[in-house]
Design brief:
It is built from 19 helices and 46 strands. It is of the alpha/beta class. An eight-stranded parallel barrel has the order 3-4-5-12-13-14-15-16, surrounded by five helices. Helix 10 runs parallel beside helix 11.
Length: 923
């Protein structure tokens, strides 16, 4: 039996590994791709206290699969109080049995399984003893004058630093002398040295410990945070997993690492050696500058740039690549959130198999009727340019998947509608993300009273959510989108260099963690960001490139290839930047010489860092001197070199036009887009996030037969094309795919909604019957007019969260129009519709409309609308009544501002079908 289980797990792991790696084409039946599990949305799946068992796992996994999820990502965290006897120790034999059961059961249901390589975050645990824990630089200063000796041992004064190691002792004289005093320190810690003259400042540098513990750790996962910069520490950390796995694959598709939140980890014991090897000089002689509070010194900025570059190398090689290699030996891949790391995000994302970004908070969209309560707004909105760091690493590396932790703190608890989720997910798709992970789903046993176990920062994508009966609406939409966005290859014409050395060249601070929450500091003020925003708005598509990526890039005829399996780029753009490595500039010139087109917004002026500074400056100057530009039109300067061309133009868009790199003019309408390239054409994904209806003819940069594909309804039809322009109709909040196929043979035309004829207002009385939810089912209602059910006389309705079914009828005098559109107008919050006993579908988001002509008949018609509301009113009622529903270890339960959660003062939220409901005929 054990052998049989192992063989099945091995087979599943091998298959999923191949699936993640393969660049296979989309399979088609008819006009829409077959949906595979990785195309469906996945979810982060919290195992609270590891209190899981086969019976409950069997129940919830089936619910997830039935609702349209494609997979789960196991992340064990702290548990609920009172259930300690059910806790399992992380990676224990009992825990491993539950993992095996989960993988096998998920496999039978068509679900995939990912796993956090740890519990909570960041990586750490009981196997991390102090010597392998996250490390920080501690410095102490002493002063000696001629003839004086230190009367105290040189030991760390900071409390709880028993494992701190003295690594450097450097003396600075008044005349600029620098002495290494480390050899003068005796075994007892006393300094055997006295200055002969002058006054000396002495700096001691210790490798201390941050003492950070794993946040939100699960039982068996508690302990110190790992020193990610040290290979030996990473190996020690991973050995615990290898031992628990017996060194064999476990059927895990991907191992996951959350955003880098290792606070104050500014050092590692090997830092001095690595710095000297890679930067060429001894950092130990610069302790005074490294710890200086001077935030204006150019010299200190250069020193810290070198320090930050060394941090980048250590994190890339010792952790990211090391961890990925370990996963590959288990026939699994890695999925990593690199943001927040003190390194080059593009390279760190690119070193794993599935780069993952995240959205935190909510974005503003001017879509009419879209709720965005002031109390739900975080300090920083999700930024699509930030998300493009992850997608760029995937695209330039030829990786099929790029994922996102999605909807974290999208709204306050229990208030998130599917309508609010949709544009946030679409914004990710537009940024190149094609593998959505919900944040998230808490595993909750069936015997735990409603609302079950919940995670404190989640939008509660779980079966206890009152919206869950209609979750398929959102899930199927995302699956259809991702089925196309994971097909073919990305189609971005521009490659934009990210000037990381300008970011690193700051005298303030020490390590520089590039966080999602700090984009106002390190991203938004830059010329790189401004240019990227302008190009995107104007209709250009692009990815970002690092120095390392450019070093390995080649030219095929005129196209820049960043990877053998990646789509090539037509031009490299270098935004205005101050600092650049001479080697990077030379590579840019080499690419141009080999046939590429390169555009400099402004020529760089200097080199980063301190090592061989004047020699490298001379090298940069010599390379720049080779660029002999001649004046061209519109102020664009040109330098022809080899088979290629280098342009110098402050107005990059003018330069692009001069070399016939064309933008997509469709963005002039307000539409946003992203393209995917296929063997016979392209897919355009179009989204209307404006406040206006768009009915227009679009010019596309690709020609061929155009098929309109609606990912919400799955309707497909041949687009109307006139004078090479494609007609599209999109209401605010809607999206479409255009499949431009040079070999297209489709014949069924898309039905456009041209001239509205008459409308039928469904103003007959409605019967309202409640089918599921709580705290108790309200009585049936007879409605002369549609209103929020919370305003009706039954007192149960203000506290009710669940499902209400509306039924009514209407007459259609004749059925002669080309199409009929049902408009529900206001729905709080999602509706499933039947007409004449036939299911129309789930209308789960704004504008709550559907084409219903095929369901109608002349004469008498019936309509049934099943509506689900939010959890908020029921939670409000429980808090008013002081019913205990949250009782967890660790953080327990907090609101969006990380204060104790209390819904008792909330207003009752509108619920049900508000309408007015109408059906409009279109000729």
């Amino acid at each position: 039996m054990q052998l049989q289980r192992f063989c099945s797990v091995l087979l599943l792991s091998t298959l999923t590994f191949c699936l993640a790696k393969a660049q296979k084409p989309v399979k088609n039946t008819g006009n829409w791709p077959v949906i595979e599990k990785q195309m469906k949305p996945w979810t982060r799946w919290w195992w609270m206290g590891n209190a899981v068992d086969e019976q409950n796992l069997n129940v919830v996994l089936k619910k997830y699969a039935d609702a349209g999820l494609g997979g789960v990502e196991i992340t064990p965290i702290y548990g609920a109080k009172g259930f300690e006897k059910q806790y399992l120790q992380f990676l224990s034999p009992e825990w491993m049995n539950m993992l095996h059961y989960t993988v096998n059961k998920a496999n039978t249901l068509g679900l995939g399984v990912d796993m956090n390589t740890g519990t909570g975050w960041p990586f750490g645990g009981p196997q991390i003893k102090p010597e392998n824990a996250a490390t920080k630089l501690i410095t102490q200063q002493y002063t000696l004058k001629a003839g004086e000796k230190l009367t105290e041992a040189i030991k760390v004064k900071e409390a709880k630093q028993d494992f701190a190691q003295l690594q450097a002792l450097t003396a600075y004289g008044t005349n600029g002398e620098v002495l290494d005093l480390l050899p003068k320190v005796q075994a007892d810690g006393f300094l055997n040295w006295s200055p002969r003259n002058g006054s000396w400042d002495i700096y001691a540098a210790f490798a201390g410990k941050t003492r950070q513990m794993v946040k939100r750790a699960a039982p068996g996962g508690e302990g110190f945070t790992l020193d990610h910069l040290d290979k030996n520490a990473v190996d020690v950390y991973l050995k615990r997993f290898s031992d628990a796995f017996g060194g064999k694959p476990q059927g895990i598709r991907s191992f996951f690492n959350d955003s880098y939140e290792v606070y104050g980890a500014t050092w590692t014991p090997t830092f001095f050696q690595e710095f000297k090897k890679n930067r060429g000089y001894d950092l130990a002689t610069h302790i005074r500058e490294l710890t200086s509070k001077d935030s204006t010194s150019e010299h200190i900025a250069r020193l810290k740039s070198d320090y930050r570059e060394t941090m980048d190398e250590l994190l890339l090689h010792n952790f990211t690549q090391n961890w990925t290699n370990w996963a590959h030996h288990l026939n699994a891949v890695t999925k990593n959130q690199s943001h927040g790391s003190p390194g080059n995000l593009l390279d760190l994302y690119g070193a794993v198999d599935i780069p993952e970004t995240e959205t935190f908070g909510s974005s503003y969209f001017p879509i009419p009727g879209l709720r965005r309560d002031a109390a739900d707004i975080r300090n920083v909105d999700p930024d699509p340019i930030m998300s493009k760091f992850a997608s760029s690493a995937a695209h330039t590396g030829g990786k099929k998947l790029v994922s996102s932790e999605t909807f974290t703190w999208l709204t306050e608890h229990f208030k998130t509608s599917f309508s609010q989720c949709k544009p946030e997910a679409e914004q990710l798709f537009l940024a190149g993300i094609n593998h959505i992970f919900y944040h998230g789903t808490t595993n909750s046993p069936t015997n735990v009273p409603w609302p079950g176990w919940l995670f404190y920062a989640s939008v509660e994508m779980n079966p206890n959510n009152s919206l869950w009966p209609q979750a398929q609406g959102l899930n199927n939409y995302i699956a259809r989108c991702q089925s196309i966005l994971q097909s073919g290859k990305p189609d971005n014409e521009l490659l934009i260099y990210w000037p990381i050395y300008d970011v690193w060249n700051k005298a303030k601070g020490l390590d520089m963690a590039l966080k999602v929450h700090d984009v106002d500091e390190w991203l938004h003020p830059t010329a790189f960001y401004k240019l990227s925003k302008e190009l995107s708005k104007s209709g250009y598509s692009f990815d970002f490139a690092s120095d390392r990526l450019l070093k390995q890039s080649t030219v095929n005829k005129t196209l820049i290839s960043t990877n053998a399996t990646a789509a090539p780029y037509q031009v490299l753009i270098v935004p205005q930047c101050e600092m650049i490595n001479p080697e990077t500039l030379d590579q840019m010139i080499k690419l141009a010489s080999n046939g590429a087109k390169v555009i400099f917004q402004v020529l760089p002026q200097d080199v980063p860092g301190l090592n061989n500074l004047e020699t490298r400056r001379a090298q940069l100057k010599a390379s720049l001197a080779k660029l002999i530009f001649r004046d061209g039109v519109d102020g664009i300067k040109q330098f022809k070199i080899g088979a290629g061309l280098i342009l110098l133009a402050d107005d990059v868009q003018k330069a692009l036009k001069a070399i016939a790199i064309h933008r997509e003019t469709l963005t002039d309408t307000g539409l946003q887009f992203i393209r995917r390239k296929t063997n016979t054409g392209k897919y355009y994904y179009l989204v209307n996030h404006t406040a206006k209806d768009i009915d227009t003819e679009l010019s596309l940069n690709e020609s061929g037969q155009v098929l309109i594909m609606d990912p919400q309804s799955s309707n497909v039809g041949l687009a109307a094309v006139r004078d090479k322009k494609v007609r599209v109709q999109l209401k605010p909040g809607e999206s479409l795919f255009l499949n431009v196929d040079q070999n297209g043979t489709a014949k069924t035309p898309w039905v456009y909604l041209n001239k509205a004829a008459n409308s039928i207002n469904l103003n007959q009385s409605w019967n309202l019957h409640f089918t599921e939810g709580g705290p108790e089912l309200p009585d049936d209602q007879q409605l002369a007019k549609l209103v929020s059910w919370t305003t009706l006389s039954d007192p149960k309705l203000q506290a009710f969260s669940g499902t209400g079914v509306y039924t009514s009828s209407f007459n259609l005098s004749s059925k002669t129009a080309k199409e009929y559109v049902l408009n529900l107008n206001e729905v709080d919050e999602s509706a499933r519709v039947w007409i004449n006993g036939q299911e129309v579908g789930i209308l789960w988001s704004i504008p709550f409309q559907a084409r219903v002509g095929k369901y109608l008949k002349a004469g008498h018609n019936t309509i049934k609308i099943e509506v689900v509301n939010l959890m908020s009113n029921r939670i409000r009622d429980m808090d008013i009544k002081k019913i205990q529903w949250r009782n967890y270890h660790e953080i327990n339960f907090v609101n969006i501002n990380y204060k104790d959660f209390d819904a008792s003062s909330w207003n009752v939220m509108s619920s049900g079908l508000i309408g007015p409901v109408s059906i409009t005929a279109f000729n």
